[in-house]
Amino acid sequence: MSNELQGTNLENTKGQDEFQEVEDLIKETLAETQVLENKAAQPAPVQEKVPEQAQQQEKTPVIVPPVEETKTKFEATEINLPRPVEAAAPQKKALPKSVPVTQGEKYDATFREYKVGDIVKGTVLKIDQSGVLVDIKYKADGLILPEEVAETLSGTLEDVVKVGQVIDVLIENLESKEGNVVLSKKQADSEVRWKRAYDAMRKKEVLDGKVIQALKGGLVVDCDGIRGFVPASQVQRQKDEPLDVFKDKTIPLKVIEVDRRQGKVTLSHRMAAGQKSQQDLEKVLAGLEVGQVRHGTVSSIKNFGAFVNIGGIDGLIHLSELSWKRVKHPSVLVKVGQELDVFVLGVDRVNKKVALGLKELQDDPWVKATDYYKAGQIIKVKIVRFAKFGAFAELDHDLEGLIHVSEMCKESVRSPEEAKRPDGQPIKIDDEVEVKVLRVIPEEQKIGLSIKGAIRKKEQEALKAVTPPPEENKVTIGDMVAQKEKERAEREAEEEETENEADAS
């Protein structure tokens, strides 16, 4: 039994020695790693002191087990080993070395990458018989053959493009036999036009198109290169108005259909006219303010006033705002198509209505009304209209006065139609009569007149002319003394009578 016990002790001692060797190896590895990291962090290499334990291990030969066995034992004993105070930081991966870029690669990087079918912009460099040389920022310049410059070439290439001009081109081939990029301006223009037509239809934009031909069924138009057709039913026109009147005119249009297979673009003048007029209306309304003076054209005349177009919107000048004097009908002062300046009286942006005035741009005659007429003055006036309470008369200087029904004649009447002139004839509209000015009130724009007052004044003047003036009585000094004596005697008699009455009482 003693031999077996000794054998067991030897085996245990051997196991402890192996465990100690592994632990020393781990410590040595950690120490070396720390030294390498310190050297990498410091700009100048600094010699680190090697721990004494490591120096002793260097002097003592260490039997290193195989890698796999050591790794296995290390992993198995890692939990049991004491952890170092500072964990080793992971080593940084070395960056791959950059490959030097050659000058040729740098030069190639300045150019763009294109593919066949791209539409790009280029600058015209040269124009000759072979075509148009264009710089498209590529390795090679592009060449447009003469037949690819435009759909129809009636003149020279210089009539279509100019040197230095920036144009749209379509890439047909990236490299020809001559080393140029084959381009086409004709196809690029066509693609741009079709795209613009599609965008206009999608965004419901209003385009301006010139009518180049009037057919029986509609109009052929050109909208900045977009050739299209406007059916007769989509043309905004007056009743029985012929389509020929639109020839060579520029009209608003809206794209309603694009069929590229058949090469057709259908447009509508009616839809665009309504939208454009609405846009113009809102734009004009936004810029209108009360007090502005605008130039316009008389568009129509009604019994109640005249409409004037000011930049796309019709404003109304009411009959009362045409002049300071009364006007029977607007046609007396304005005509359709007449150009004139108007004064903005009001703007209703909700109902889209504008009130205009014409008399505001004329001198106000009521300012000097008191200079023209005075109370008591006899003048001639013209009867312009009747009212229930009297008759209105037209005066000079664009003024108007009122003859009340009680002042129409000497007799009492209930209506102005019953009034009669001094000769017994009834007073009618447009008659000229004499009136007396009763009052002038400029701030209320009122002038009171009287036919009866004028008649009485004339009668008084006639009576005064036939009646002799009364004789003047001469008074002497004696008469004055006698009058005073008479008055004194009367006073004394009154005093005496007063005293008698007092005694009697």
UniProtKB/TrEMBL annotation:
<feature type="compositionally biased region" description="Basic and acidic residues">
    <location>
        <begin position="482"/>
        <end position="491"/>
    </location>
</feature>
<comment type="similarity">
    <text>Belongs to the bacterial ribosomal protein bS1 family.</text>
</comment>
<dbReference type="GO" id="GO:0003735">
    <property type="term" value="F:structural constituent of ribosome"/>
</dbReference>
<keyword id="KW-0687">Ribonucleoprotein</keyword>
<dbReference type="InterPro" id="IPR050437">
    <property type="entry name" value="Ribos_protein_bS1-like"/>
</dbReference>
<feature type="region of interest" description="Disordered">
    <location>
        <begin position="462"/>
        <end position="505"/>
    </location>
</feature>
<feature type="region of interest" description="Disordered">
    <location>
        <begin position="36"/>
        <end position="59"/>
    </location>
</feature>
<feature type="domain" description="S1 motif">
    <location>
        <begin position="291"/>
        <end position="359"/>
    </location>
</feature>
<feature type="domain" description="S1 motif">
    <location>
        <begin position="376"/>
        <end position="452"/>
    </location>
</feature>
<dbReference type="Pfam" id="PF00575">
    <property type="entry name" value="S1"/>
</dbReference>
<dbReference type="GO" id="GO:0003729">
    <property type="term" value="F:mRNA binding"/>
</dbReference>
<protein>
    <recommendedName>
        <fullName>S1 motif domain-containing protein</fullName>
    </recommendedName>
</protein>
<keyword id="KW-0689">Ribosomal protein</keyword>
<dbReference type="InterPro" id="IPR035104">
    <property type="entry name" value="Ribosomal_protein_S1-like"/>
</dbReference>
<dbReference type="InterPro" id="IPR003029">
    <property type="entry name" value="S1_domain"/>
</dbReference>
<feature type="domain" description="S1 motif">
    <location>
        <begin position="117"/>
        <end position="186"/>
    </location>
</feature>
<feature type="domain" description="S1 motif">
    <location>
        <begin position="204"/>
        <end position="270"/>
    </location>
</feature>
<dbReference type="GO" id="GO:0006412">
    <property type="term" value="P:translation"/>
</dbReference>
<dbReference type="InterPro" id="IPR012340">
    <property type="entry name" value="NA-bd_OB-fold"/>
</dbReference>
<feature type="compositionally biased region" description="Acidic residues">
    <location>
        <begin position="492"/>
        <end position="505"/>
    </location>
</feature>
